[in-house]
Design goal:
The complex is a heterotrimer of chains A (about 230), B (about 500) and C (about 325). Chain A has about 230 residues and is an alpha/beta fold. Chain A folds into 2 domains: about 150 residues, P-loop containing nucleotide triphosphate hydrolases (Rossmann fold), CATH 3.40.50.300; about 70 residues, no CATH class. Chain A contains 8 helices and 11 strands. In chain A, strands 1, 2, 3, 4, 5, 6, 7, 8, 9, 10 and 11 form an 11-stranded mixed β-sheet that branches. In chain C, strands 1, 2, 3, 4, 5, 6, 7, 8, 9, 10, 11 and 12 form a 12-stranded mixed β-sheet that branches. The N terminus of chain C is likely disordered. Classes of the chains: A alpha/beta (about 230), B mainly alpha (about 500), C alpha/beta (about 325).
Chain lengths: ~230, ~500, ~325
Amino acid sequence: MLKLEGCELQNGGFSLAADLQIEAGQRVAVIGPSGAGKTTLIEAIAGFLPISRGRLIWRDQDLTAMAPGRRPMAMLFQDSNLFPHLSVAQNVGLGIRPNLRLNATEQAKVQAAIDRVGLKGLEDRKPAALSGGQQSRVALGRVLVQGRDVLLLDEPFAALGPALKAEMLDLVAALAAESGATVLMVSHDPADARRIADQVVLVAEGLAHPPVATGPLLDNPPPALKAYLG
Amino acid sequence: MIGVLFAVALRADPGAGLGPADWSAIRFTVWQAILSASCSVLLAIPVARGIARRRFWGRRVLIALMGAPFILPVIVAILGILVVFGRSGWISDLLVLMGQEPLRIYGLQGVVLAHVFFNLPLATRLILQGWQEIPAERFRLAAQLNVDGPSMWRLLEWPMLRQVVPGAFAVIFAICLSSFAVALTLGGGPRATTIELAIYEAFRLEFDLGRAALLSGLQLVLTGLAAFVALRMAIGEGFGSGLDRPLRRWDGQAAVARGLDVVWITAAGLFLVLPLAAIVLSGIPGLLSLSARSADLLVRAAGNSLVISATSTLLMLVLVVPMTVAIALRPLNGGGVLAELAGLLGLAVSPLVIGTGLFIVLFPFVDPFALALPVTALVNALMALPFALRILVPRVRDILARYGRLALSLDLQGWTFMRVVLLPRLRPQLGFAAGLAAALSMGDLGVIALFSDSETATLPLQVYRLMGAYRTDAAAAGALLLLCLSVGMFYVLDRGGRRHAET
Amino acid sequence: MKHLVFAAGMLGATTAFAETPELIVYTYDSFVSDWGPGPAVEKAFEATCGCDLKLVGAGDGAALLARLKLEGERSDADVVLGLDTNLTAAAKATGLFADHSVSADYALPIAWEDATFAPYDWGYFAFVHNADATAPKNFVELAASDLKIVIQDPRSSTPGLGLLMWVKAAYGDKAPEIWEGLSDNVLTVTKGWSEAYGLFLEGEADMVLSYTTSPAYHLIAEEDASKAAAAFDEGHYMQVEVAGKLAASDQPELADQFLAFMVSDAFQSIIPTTNWMYPAVTPAEGLPEGFDTLVTPEKSLLLSADEAAALRDAALDEWLTALSR
């Protein structure tokens, strides 16, 4: 269970209150109007934004003061998820050991992840020589080898076409199902939420609402969401 | 550096204040430094722009040669310049043939000309680096938007120059401020008295350490002021980074733009290459007729120089990387400026004062002469720091901004972050900085001249000594050797840093 | 690594030589250079003294004195060699020097009566020009001509200071007028001798301030007779280079022995073709061939050490005023 207990998040002049719980293994979409604080919420959970009040707890462990890289979380950003000077294999390998000194078992694991995301044969390519979809797959390959409990996605596929985005979301869903990871995904597209999320956290008017089931919420949206959905 | 100055001041008797002669020296020093730095930087802009967007035969060589003038021993460079621009130089000969008056180089124009010769290449390289750090993606976007020349200037070039030019100006201003032999010789007489010369006078004629320290402090204050103003002006966001796509340029294809670039590159190339050619030409006969004894001396001195140069480059790298990160982590206008300023001040202190200060500090404990080589390496490393910081800081800022969070989320920290992310992404800049440091140390004649005996002479010192002993030909051969070694070191390090990157 | 090895070698060397007495002589840089007198002098003295002679080079004469002042009584030096008469007053004033016991039959054009410093060589300042050009006969003619000269700055160079004293010694209170007349002939002023001489060799100027002995180098070492020194009829200013013993020396006998050696044949015969100056005592075999072709001034000018020290600041001001116009 991921718990935000009486949290207040400050980002510039903006503040967001969050008091909610997410069951382990759930796939949750974070939706809401632009500028409502979706990214703020995700970044606070990832540890890039200090939580000014309240506590963040994962499986009875207090993460509030923990450094981002130490949290049981993997994150994909809107862009710059790869290092341009490292090869596909190295970018994935970073997920196991940041110093890239991998033993044979670990290398096999990297190779397996690359195969799993469908990039077999492209191990030595640099990101500039890959398509957008392939770049996303490399990042997912790294998430896979990281083996973290929670996966945070900040619209990493926003730049991809609808078909490609759907493909990536399915891949995320499949990978999460295989590993049992909890997924939190920021999205501005209700279709994304319907596609892979069981639950939705609505962020609006300075508040992150507790998660509710996706279907009913989207079918019968409250006023704040309705205004956003149009 | 400050400590060294302090040591000199402590040994000083209370001296007199500044007289009218000092004030006129200060005025001249500042005026020529402003003129020299402005000319160097302003002329460097079109040259760097041309080099950035053209591919031509000899481009790499030209870029490598840009490391040369800056490291030449002053006396060698002066003679090289005079062979071309002097009263009986090549251009004057040509003018006389055409029935014109020969060039009048001695005066403020000569001082500025020589300083531009020394510093235009440096400014060009610093600004060229700015151009190269605009990611390929931005140019692609600009090309896609069919951005015309003026808009290109406003969108990409002007913001980049606003970041790069003030720093380049500050560095060159600091160099020109402590000029002495160039200013005096080409300035045509005591009208061209600089603060540095006044320091020599205080030290040699009067042995007035207080005055020497006071004047040296004044150099520091002036450099500090100029650098502070310049660095405060250097504002603006970075350009972000791209995916290391090979850089291709689509802009500036109009005939006028091409023509202008050709003119600028050719003019700057000739201005740079002709005096170097003069040095090469006068060195060749000397090299051919070199006696075994002189050859042996030069080779030994070259060995010393290489050791010093390599040591000081390594030292500089060890010092600069953590410093750069520390500066880059600070907000743009905060402590970072102060740290960079501190680095710059090292350039403004007279070698005579540094040497004397070190002597005072070291003498009670060790024989300063036994430490001639390590001390020189250390001082050279410190002198190269400001250049290295100028080159590295903006890039490190970009890297941290772009990849800092990704690295944090992957728990990439400390040494691992340096090894896996920072150093590989910084390699072209590190190569350039190391090349400059190596070349600078190769040509330095500052501190070693005060500490050296005949065993530990460096190549520039040996060249100077050969000249002082009437051995003009051997000295010219030594100068040629020095030129080759410096350009060679610079080329190897600079290219090494850019193996994959665009030049 | 090399310098570490080198430093270790230095330490090792100090202990190894602790057995033989060591005489440390501070001198100017060009004296110890491989083509200067240093190597031959060291060999000749060590052959007789049973000691180790260590020559330490420190810049030029003025830098040498500055270094000595910095080190004070803690200095390792036993002897200082290479000051000239423009510096001896200041050197004596430090109180660091002891009187010498040298006596010799000096070949100097003037009588030598300094109890603290003993001379080892001397020369005349002169303007050197290409032998095929007609040279002026004095400063007045030079000022009236349109010849271009390169001189050294008295604030940073020994010959530069020498020229200042030359004009002062020849013209006294009329020196400012001479300088004003010369100001349009001075092409430029350089930091040191090497820059000035280099400019002259490049053909930038018609004449350069140097020594009457400069043509001897070109003649003897390069077999090139194309350079000559102009003889000025108001006389030529002399540079007399001297050495002195330090009071705090831990080897006073050896220092005396060295000073005596300095005026002997063995030392003096090395000087002409290494330091390119006149030896203070003419060696038994006479001067090397070529020296006889040099200009010998009719009149030798030299201000005493005290006069030189007293006149310097005023002379410098006159020079600056005249040339800054």
